[in-house]
Recover the amino acids of this structure.
């Protein structure tokens, strides 16, 4: 052991290397999450962090992996600080790797300050309740699963479904109403090279990169880097939101790759596995990421999270979506059945919800009829889906005239409201007008969730007839 001119304490007694882990002997003073610099005999340097320490032994997780390392000829330098990300207004418009190193050919940003990537917990007493609308430009989200500033709303997808398209579309189109500053922090975790290139090109070509910060962690990068990517991205988001007073949307895709990396490292540490081999602390670990979203009293900015995860075998009870659902405020579930019908985005609205939607919509935020229209769409579409199943058994000839109208509504809802071109950015007014267009397929008497005044104002009927004085009484 010796003191180093680079700072920190240096050790050369490496007991064991296993997977991405390094066991260093003789360590008497090391802290959890402390940054460690590994120097090879060739002069190459790698970074790691302390996972556990005690009885003269420290277990170090190496970010770049342990390939090419041996137990002799390397030095471990404990730096006395956690991994930090340099932050300044110059990070906006930049592209970084999973550890915050530049990928765009430009020099590293000169940081006004360096922030611990593990963040600091927000005191629940200082949290402010989310209640301001974020417009994504996607009708089904804005109209029925409204995203609110400070909310965490995950997208549950499946292998092969277009979640990457939806993520890029939201990153490109999302905005807050009014003149307040808005930014997107996009973290791609464990993605393929072509996916990373798609995200970069999508933001560059649309001009959205000017107000975005992009972090790209590739599938062939070490698992350890995947663990740090969302934390580095959220550190930048916290700086933009709480120091620069910006409203920040953080998109994290794919959280399943993050959880797989966590499982890999847990196995290397020989921890007792939990459900499906994931570590027992998966819930706690996911919470350390998701709970970094929110608003703080006295601060103008906000962090809204849109984590995206692929459900293995489309199983919504799998530990990753299951635990995510406990922590977050709702979910947007993509449907393979709708995808096979050629509908984009294939959002299964009957399995989806936004728990904070009611507080972010209405007069002065979106439009006065928003809540009622959303409720009516849910009610009518669920009935249409039930009637489709019934029609397969008894045939359409056994259905009433009103039932047939509901089947017509279901088709119109999927074709006109749910389905939306990847390049189309719809305002909330356009979304609600489309909702009325598909609701007008139904007889007025079926609009039981909507007040009389709104029916008179917006309902057109199939041929544009005016409302009758008795319609919609149930929603009065």
């Amino acid at each position: 052991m010796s003191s180093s001119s680079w700072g920190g304490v240096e050790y050369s007694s490496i007991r064991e290397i296993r997977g991405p882990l390094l066991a260093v002997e003789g360590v008497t003073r090391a802290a959890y999450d402390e940054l460690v610099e590994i120097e090879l005999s060739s002069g190459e340097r790698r970074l790691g962090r302390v996972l556990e320490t005690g009885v003269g032994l420290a277990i170090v997780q190496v970010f770049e992996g342990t390939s090419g390392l041996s137990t002799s000829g390397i030095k471990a330098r404990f730096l006395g600080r956690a991994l930090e990300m340099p932050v300044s207004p110059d990070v906006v418009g930049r592209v970084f790797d999973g550890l915050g190193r530049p990928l765009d050919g430009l020099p590293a940003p000169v940081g006004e300050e360096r922030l611990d990537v593990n963040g600091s917990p927000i005191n629940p007493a200082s949290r402010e309740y989310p209640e301001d609308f974020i417009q994504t430009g996607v009708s089904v989200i804005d109209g029925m699963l409204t995203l609110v500033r400070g909310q965490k709303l995950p997208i549950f997808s499946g292998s092969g479904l277009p979640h990457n398209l939806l993520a890029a579309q939201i990153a490109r189109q999302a905005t807050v109403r009014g003149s307040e500053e808005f930014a997107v922090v996009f973290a791609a975790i464990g993605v393929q090279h072509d996916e990373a290139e798609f995200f970069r090109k999508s933001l560059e070509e649309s001009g959205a990169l000017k107000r975005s910060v992009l972090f790209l962690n590739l599938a062939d990068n070490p698992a350890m880097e995947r663990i740090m990517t969302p934390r580095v991205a959220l550190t930048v988001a916290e700086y933009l939101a709480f120091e620069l007073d910006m409203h920040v949307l953080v998109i994290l895709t794919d959280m399943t790759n993050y959880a797989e990396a966590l499982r890999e490292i847990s196995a290397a540490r020989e921890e007792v596995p939990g459900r499906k081999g994931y570590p027992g602390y998966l819930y706690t670990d996911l919470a350390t990421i998701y709970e970094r979203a929110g608003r703080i009293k006295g601060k103008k900015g906000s962090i809204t999270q849109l984590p995206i995860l692929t459900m293995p075998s489309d199983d919504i009870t799998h530990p990753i979506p299951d635990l995510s659902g406990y922590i977050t405020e709702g979910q947007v579930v993509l449907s393979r059945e709708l995808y096979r019908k050629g509908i984009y985005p294939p959002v299964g609205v009957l399995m989806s919800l936004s728990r904070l939607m009611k507080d972010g919509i209405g007069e002065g935020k979106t439009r006065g009829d928003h809540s009622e229209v959303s409720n009516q769409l849910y009610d009518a579409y669920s009935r249409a889906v039930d009637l489709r199943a019934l029609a397969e058994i008894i045939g359409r000839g056994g259905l009433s005239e009103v039932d047939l109208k509901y089947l017509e509504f279901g088709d119109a809802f999927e074709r006109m409201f749910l389905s939306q071109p990847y390049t189309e950015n719809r305002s909330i007014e356009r979304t609600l007008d489309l909702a009325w267009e598909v609701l007008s397929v139904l007889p007025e008497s079926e609009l039981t969730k909507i007040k009389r005044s709104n029916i008179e104002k917006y309902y057109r009927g199939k041929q544009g007839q005016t409302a009758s004085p008795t319609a919609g009484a149930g929603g009065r």
Notes: Confidence is low (pLDDT under 50) at residues 1-6, 463-476. The chain has three domains: 2-82, 85-360, 370-475.
